[in-house]
Write a structure and sequence with these properties.
CATH architecture of the largest domain: Sandwich
CATH superfamily of the largest domain: Immunoglobulins
Structural class: mainly beta
Helix content: under 10%
Number of domains: 2
Shape: globular
Radius of gyration: 22 Å
Number of helices: 2
Length: about 300
């Protein structure tokens, strides 16, 4: 299952232009940075690193010697996570829906941090259909119609993504020299009005939306997929290189409010980073005395 623990690190590489501005503020004391999205089918996993001053040019530091614990809504520790590698701490227990979990991270050299969130309830998927649509430019596109029931009596937040798995193979005389699987985020065409609610327009790599327009009702989500990269086989003096698409997977996430705010602010941050005239955007964080995100996501996925 695809995981989302690297979101904060990836968000830092999008800054494409540099502007020198004299710094007149205080030097910020480094704080702990947390990245953790917990899901119903996986145990808790938390990445811990440290922030840096705005005038510090050193690389970000993974924290390998923190005490990372998960508490239940009664304040009791249900698990202390073990450090795996590169700042990742893993546990054995899986979260359950509608339970509030609190993350606490303690370290001698940093202010201790905490954050709380819960796992949303599962999504009721009624059906999923796919059809091939011919556009005016004679381009064939895959249209996905996903019907689900939005839980009533609560505000819900959603994220939809698609991923393609492609395999590349190099052989000589039927002997395999190299075989590689690559998972690639697939672009989508998002025209449904739900992707533009609350004044936020989702980008085509991911669709963020709320149930503002269909609270407690059945909703059919229409998603179009542009033509996938074509398969090919190339023979060069007996050395055969080939590449083919193995699968296309659609993910529908029922996410917490904190995770929704985090992803929407991250998208706005990416857009602003690409525009030298845009106003700065602060990425949402729900970490007390630190930075980052600790949030729940309920996931349904379909291999098409």
């Amino acid at each position: 299952m695809k995981k989302l623990f690297f979101i904060i690190i990836i968000s830092l590489i999008y800054v494409s232009c540099e502007k020198i501005i004299p710094f007149e503020g205080d030097i910020t004391i480094p704080k702990l940075v947390i990245n953790s999205i917990f899901e119903s089918d996986s145990s808790f996993k938390v990445h811990v690193s440290s922030s840096r001053s705005v005038i510090d040019t050193a690389s970000f530091k993974n924290i390998n010697d923190a005490v990372v614990s998960i508490k239940n809504e009664n304040g009791n520790i249900i698990e202390t996570l073990s450090h795996s590698q590169n700042g990742f701490y893993v546990g054995q227990k899986k979260p359950v829906e509608n339970q509030i979990y609190t993350l606490e991270v303690d370290h001698l050299n940093y202010t201790n941090i905490s954050a709380s969130d819960s796992l949303p309830i599962p999504i009721s998927i009624n059906y999923l259909d796919t059809i091939t649509v011919i556009e005016p430019n004679n381009e064939n596109r895959l249209q996905i119609n996903l019907n689900f029931t939005d839980p009533a009596n609560s505000q819900n937040f959603y994220l939809v993504e698609t991923y393609v798995v492609r395999a590349s193979l190099t052989t000589i005389n039927q002997d395999t020299l190299e075989y590689e699987l690559d998972t690639i985020k697939q672009r989508m065409i998002l025209t449904d009005v739900v992707f533009q609610n609350n004044g936020f327009k989702s980008r085509d790599e991911q669709g963020l939306f709320t149930d503002l327009l269909f609270n407690g009702q059945n909703k059919t989500l229409e998603i179009k997929i542009p033509p996938l990269k074509k398969d090919y086989v190339f023979n060069e003096n007996g050395k055969i290189n080939s590449e083919k698409t193995l699968s296309l997977t659609l993910y529908l996430h029922n996410i917490s409010k904190s995770y929704y705010y985090y992803r929407t602010s991250l998208e706005l941050y990416v857009d602003a980073s690409r525009n030298p005239f845009a106003q700065p955007v602060q990425v949402f964080s729900n970490i007390n005395n630190g930075f980052g995100i600790f949030a729940g996501a309920q996931i349904s996925y379909f291999v098409l």
